[in-house]
Amino acid sequence: MNENKVNTVVIIGAGIFGVSTAVQLARKGVKVTLLNDGPVANGASGRSLSWLNSSRMRSDAYHRLRMAGIDRYRSLAARIGQVDWLSFKGGLTWDADDASNEIEAAYEHEVSLAYDALHLPADKVPAATPGIDASTITPQGAIFNPGEGWVDLPSLIKVLLSEFLALGGVLVTDAGAARVIVEAGRATGAETANGSRLLADAVLLATGPSVPKMAAEAGQTIDDGTPVSLLVTTKPIELPLKAVLNTPRVAVRPGPGNTLALDAAWSEEEVEHRADGSYGVKPETVEGLLIEASKVLEGNPKLELASYGVGRKPIPGDGDPVFGELQAISGYFVAFSHSGATLGLIAGELLAYEIASGQRHPMLAPFRPERFVANP
User: Residue 1 pLDDT more than 50?
Assistant: First the structure.
């Protein structure tokens, strides 16, 4: 018995939120067309550090959603077995040795939530997780979270797309900028850059940092705090590092094929914003990231650049995710969040539930887009 409230859905954006939701809808028997302006994962999903975690401090509702997200990755890992693009070997973080250091407070908060955490002095870190130059850890110590992990989103998206296509889903790439068609207060489909119209019972807008602007074209407000991100990938190098590192000067994530992914707030601030909308990255910025990463790794190895990606990193204005149907436009759903990797699978599951069933899931209640609408 088909209990779906919709039969056809168009999803704009083939990053992790779009693809994950597309697969979940296809599993429910919904006919889905997935549109992307260029190649799959050509946006934020292709340049994400992709650290799977719920560390530090945030709202209880956001923590629960992130924990559900991590749970779905563990279920996926149990189903597919060992792969080189998904790992749960923990996360290690330490703060600068100044007034901004919140390691003790963060640890106490994590313990209060029963989030698996160890507060370790520098000399105890090597026994907990390998590959770190412990001399760089500040006197306040570090937090090791054994249950954290990482994912390579382009690899995951490839796997999900394979299932989506096998289930009869339609993928349209290099479609250019698409727009949501709104008629009589309802989303009725999407129009591609060449004017082709794809009609549907519902539309999901999952275009990463472009969501607020595209929603604004329909008269809907989603507060936007999107900055620019820079992700550097190294050439393969044999290292004992297993955990994701979040340190004062650099974040380091192991990747497929013995590569490393690197980013840092300071490096993003050095990105040049050009008048034509493109970005420039100085060679010394990239080299600086490689040097900072080497400093925190055991043996201080020489790291070499393989590639880098630069572009906008989706972050809502209040920092929390934005998921669900626009209150003012029936059938118009949005997905907009910074934590795309951690929430990737669970967001797709819950959005597909809402789109297909017409029911609102309680876990998404705090993250509705209408929270940005001013009270009259």
Answer: no
